[in-house]
Fold:
Amino acid sequence: MAKFWEFKKVRTILIVMAVVIALLSLFVSQALVKDLSREERAKMELFAQAYHSFNAADENTDLSLVLSVISGNKTIPVIVVDQDDNVLNFINIEIGKADTAACLARSLERMRAQGNSIKIWFDEDDPDNYNEVCFDESLLLNRLTVYPFIQIGVVVLFVLLAIFALLSFKKTEQNRVWVGLSKETAHQLGTPISSLMAWTELLKDKYDDSLISEMEKDVDRLQMVADRFSKIGSMPEPEPVDMCSLLQTVLEYTSHRTPKTVRYVCSYPPEPVLANVNQSLFGWVIENLCKNAVDAMDGKGTLTIGLSQAKDSVIIDVADTGKGIAKGSWKSVFDPGFTTKKRGWGLGLSLAHRIVCEYHKGRIYVLNSELGRGTTFRIEIPLLK
Structure:
């Protein structure tokens, strides 16, 4: 349980770090973009003044500084037009094979829409006699504008990969723990079970056969539990099984070992419902759900088991009238270590999820739950056609 919450903490820290980096990147980049934009506009104002001086110069004017300013612009796209929108000059604009006039017209329209234009009047008394210097953002400024979004994408991708790696590591670690625990449990159970089987054979000669037969049933039960544990970690062989018969067998066992104050209500279709399952492991899932339901009801209530058949799947519902589960915990109940009991490892539903989803390619989930009124778990597995 502690490791699960530790993983959630690491995941939250990674997400918070990604958000902080993204916000800082946006803030710094936008500040740089604004500074560079102001600098480029100042350059264009100087360019407009130089262009005005060039047009107003006579043969005695020194144009070296003016020409230096005009020719010094190597990055900012510029279009100079007169009052009738006739293009007088353009700089740093790639035309390619497109129609020059149309390309310049589109660029001019975009520049004006962005507010990037400076008018040059040659005669203050004649407001209709002017040139207009229109300019666009430089390639550097455009790249700087897009850069933060690329950086955010990279950060998000990094966080997603990190979370995926943590999830994969977490799942691998869980698998190792489950497999190791299961194999060791099966190994440890093997010796006392063999001993009990031998003792029952000896006791048959001295005691009532009915008592011995009950002991043999419990020994067989222990043998089946050991067999279940031994199959965890390997891919068990499924076989065609009538789910009605399987549920009846499992419920016959569980009902005799639960308080009489628990009422079982079963609903099966009249015809057989076939599915490819491993009887031992799938029976374990149903037993776990029934045991959890009895615990949730504190040994008193109604346990309803329903079996139905959809187009492509077998549906099993296990409903109780117990304490219920908060909606925020519907998915967490299948996490290893999650438990609402004072005792227990919190592995029952986790193992059930593994058996249903990984071994039988199905689904198990909380269909409905209401605090104080009960919970319904649903299992869906492929129907054998």
The chain is about 55% helix and 20% strand. The longest strand covers residues 301-309.
